[in-house]
Description:
eight-stranded mixed sheet, ATP binding, binds magnesium ion, ABC_transporter-like_ATP-bd, 33% helix, five-stranded antiparallel sheet, binds adenosine-5'-triphosphate, alpha/beta, ABC_Ni/Peptide_Import, membrane
Amino acid sequence: MxxxxxxxxxxxxxxxxxxxxxxxxxxxxAPGEILGVVGESGCGKSITNLAVLGLLPPGAQxxxxxxxxxxxxxxxxxxxxxxxxRGSKVAMIFQNPMSALNPSLTIGTQLIESVRKADPALxxxxxxxxxxxxxxxxGIGAAALRLKSYPHELSGGMAQRAMIAMALxxxxxxxxxxxxxxxxxxxIQAQIxxxxxxxxxxxxxxxxxxxxxxxxxxQYADRIQVMYSGEIVETGPIGQVTQTPSHPYTRALLQSxxxxxxxxxxxxxxxxxxxxxxxxxxxEGCRFASRCDRAEAQCQxxxxxxxxxxxxxxxxxL
Length: 318
Ligand SMILES: Nc1ncnc2c1ncn2[C@@H]1O[C@H](COP(=O)(O)OP(=O)(O)OP(=O)(O)O)[C@@H](O)[C@H]1O
Ligand SMILES: [Mg+2]
């Protein structure tokens, strides 16, 4: 496994006490696989990924029965060693490429610096050649010229490609793409997602693709993980989960998808009533119960345990 997570809990300081915000999540990412992560805003998707990158805010506490990236125990990584993990095993691209690029430095300067960090032994010429190769890999034409461009001279899609090139510099086994296309228009979004899909095939890289949009995940991911208020409520192969969702929350997310597969024309879009409870709030029963149409007494009283089949599971009483 590239990423192997068992019973990961993340606690944040609230005043003088630590409260869990991500509760006992377990998941794995296989080599070359795209794991799609969905869930409404505030469900803990980003926090979970930031833990894999060692980028949680100071004061956060991470515990797990297993938390391993390419066999390395992430719980044992010290503050000084995280840059090495990020520079060799895992890289991340963010929602807004423009804010992640330094506006006052050319793409070349920034990309060549990523190359230098990844391969300190390369000489100046070789670094530049590798930077050009990376830009070509992400589909940026006239790469040698582009090295001289400043971020503001690039379109949003082009800037995201440049960010992906920087992420690839270290040949990561795992690329975490957190809402990589939310800031882009629909055509460019498809191009970037196609690019990620091609890169994982060509490079055998695994991808965690985080999105609000279950439609995007449906199209690109091999497996899906549905998060709700700091927990994983359902996970499994993409076809199985989207065609026969078991958790009422997964069903609701699928029903709120515009143009959803199999929907009759003019079927009204469903919105999920109510709101995600604050992630740090302690709740006795199922965290989704207050919004669930099918909730029974037991749902309010005690948390559901996960029911497993071969390669999927769901956390629901019903
Ligand atoms: N440093 C922090 N201290 C305390 N609480 C935090 C901190 N960072 C995030 N949170 C809480 O954790 C919640 C979940 O955050 P997270 O960013 O993981 O959500 P998300 O699922 O990625 O949402 P979105 O889809 O909006 O990106 C936030 O809504 C916030 O309440
Ligand atoms: Mg997020």
